[in-house]
Amino acid sequence: MRRREFITLLGGAAAWPLAARAQQSAMPVIGFLDFGWPIPKVVAAFQKGLNETGYVEGRNLAIEFRWGQNDTTRLAELATDLARRQVAVIVASNGTAALAASTATKTIPIVFSTAGDPVQMGLVANLNRPDGNATGIANMQMEVSAKIVA
């Protein structure tokens, strides 16, 4: 899967909780949390994925972007701020951001992508039934490659 397709898929997954809260009169807010720095292509792909599912920033949803600038302390503060603002969903673009978000809230849905095992990281209870408030995509190529039979 190419990066652009992945970001589009992630944007669509982030919109799912918004449909569940459609009864609210206020414009829903997505919290986007990233460990690093703003990457214009990632932001554009995320917004494009939302647009393709009918969600347009400024028209029927708002997005609160938070960038950790490679500082885990800052990331924890940003995740807590998003939880305090009661965003509809937190999109965590990597495992570090997902861990910060899961520490900050146990009620707001978290959609994550990670390169590690989300069970081992403590993000979900198990892969079949994540339970809790977190779900997402995990690239576990290293873990699975040992099981490939040649």
Can you put this structure into words, describing what you see?
With 150 residues, the protein is of the alpha/beta class. The protein has one domain (3-145): Rossmann fold (3-Layer(aba) Sandwich), CATH 3.40.50. 42% of the residues lie in helices and 17% in strands. It has 6 helices and 5 strands, in the order αβαβαβαβαβα. It has helices at residues 3-20, 40-52, 72-84, 95-104, 118-121, 141-145; strands at residues 29-34, 62-67, 89-92, 110-114, 134-138. The chain has a 5-stranded parallel β-sheet, with helices on both faces. β1 (29-34), α2 (40-52) and β2 (62-67) form a beta-alpha-beta unit. α1 (3-20) packs across α2 (40-52). The longest helix has 18 residues, at 3-20. The model has no long low-confidence stretch (mean pLDDT 84).
Provide tags for this entry:
single chain, 150 residues, alpha/beta, Rossmann fold, five-stranded parallel sheet, 5 strands, 17% strand
Which helices and strands occur, and which strands form pairs?
Elements: H1 3-20, E1 29-34, H2 40-52, E2 62-67, H3 72-84, E3 89-92, H4 95-104, E4 110-114, H5 118-121, E5 134-138, H6 141-145
Parallel strand pairs: 1-2, 1-3, 3-4, 4-5
Helix pairs in contact: 1-2, 3-4
